[in-house]
Amino acid sequence: LQFTEEKLGQAEKTELDAHFENLLARADCTKNWTEKILRQTEVLLQPNPSARVEEFLYEKLDRKVPSRVTNGELLAQYMTEAASDFGPGTPYGKTLIKVGETQRRLGAAEREFIHSASINFLTPLRNFLEGDWRTISKERRILQNRRLDLDACKARLKKAKAAEAKAAVTL
Q: CA–CA separation, 126 vs 117, rounded Å?
């Protein structure tokens, strides 16, 4: 009732401290930017949306994500197979073997980068959103409920005093 009356402008609302309001605004801003950075980093590390969904499901089910071959590693595999078809002794075959080995190393470096970024960058962001932010939200709801209770009590006290004053005047 107090919340509804406040929204309709029929009840007084106790304002929170300006410094506290600033902290709440900063917390909201931190949460929003953390979510955006987390999502965009996931897109950067895994551009394929269906693969991201699959990884998300594995993560939520607490299962190990199956290891995927990176595009560089796949290209290296194709180059190596092509080199064996053309013959490793031919100039084209030798070139394919060299470039294929370089692509394999690049693919392995990409895999290591993705793994490292996931552990060292994405995990702390997720921990903030799933841990600290939930705590902040829970405490914020509790504070809001306590403030509404306080304002409701103030309104009842004000009505009781007004009724008491009116009764004193009529006597």
A: 13
User: 40: domain range?
Assistant: 1-170
CA distance 166 to 132: 51
Report the distance separating Cα 123 and Cα 42, nearest Å.
Answer: 11
CATH number of the domain within which 94 lies: 1.20.1270.60
Ranking 40-49, 58-67, 86-95 by mean pLDDT, the lowest is 58-67
Residue that the structure tokens 């290296």 belong to: 76
Total-model pTM? 0.73
| d(C-alpha 108, C-alpha 72), whole Å | 8
Burial (Cβ within 10 Å: 0-12, 13-18, ≥19) of residue 74: middle
Domain tally, the chain: 1
Q: What is the DSSP string of 110-156?
A: HHHHHHHHIIIIIHHHHHIIIIIHHHHHHHHHHHHHHHHHHHHHHHH
Give Dmax (Cα) for the chain: 117
Distance in angstroms (rounded) separating the CA atoms of residues 74 and 76: 5
pLDDT tens string 107-149: 999 999 998 998 999 999 999 999 999 999 999 999 989 988 8
